[in-house]
Amino acid sequence: MTSGALTAGVVVLLVSLGAVAGPLVGLSPWWLTVFVALGLGSLTLDAARFGGRGGHLLAEALPGGQGRLRRIAIHEAGHALAATSDGLVVQRVLVGSLACLRAGVDSGGCTEFALPESVKLSAEDLRRWSRVLQAGMVAESLIYGGSVGGDDDRALLGRLWGLSGFDVETARMEQRRARREVEQALRDRRAEIEAEAERLLQAAPRFGRRPPP
């Protein structure tokens, strides 16, 4: 579910509760109308200006947002370090909803790579991509004990194996093998993950924060 859809659902729920409970507690219908107008106006502004990610932008700007952004930075640092080891070119790394919004990317963070020359890849190339695309989740697990990001990585990885003509069982087996390999590699590079994440975090834009020099 997208953040815009979730926000809309919350507004509808609150309006419904207000319509039912309002008369019981003496709430004037006028206040309910004002609340509906403000809610719909906020949704429209969020969709028009922030691509439906206004809630994420606000969460990252609040005092606790640094921890949220650090987790994203850890995830992206895992991708970047694994890509360097596997010879894949990293074009840019974005951390946080504001950075992604400015780049026209609908995400809270992403690492962009140079595209392969063909959508049909060899088994060896697919193994490299399997290590790199799973490295973000692995980095999160090493630092936090589990991962909350990575749905897009898993989906892309599945498409790459499918487009290259491999059956599902082979793809799953190779991805499990690649995950074990990248887990072992990144376990020995924990300090590098955290250092790279800190560098990315310092460069990440946030509302109410001056850009780094």
From TrEMBL:
Residues 168-203 form a coiled coil. SUPFAM superfamilies: FtsH protease domain-like (SSF140990). It comes from Cyanobium gracile UHCC 0281. It comes from the Bacteria. This is ATP-dependent Zn protease. The lineage of its organism: Bacteria, Bacillati, Cyanobacteriota, Cyanophyceae, Synechococcales. Keywords: Coiled coil. The keyword Disulfide bond does not apply. The keyword Manganese does not apply.
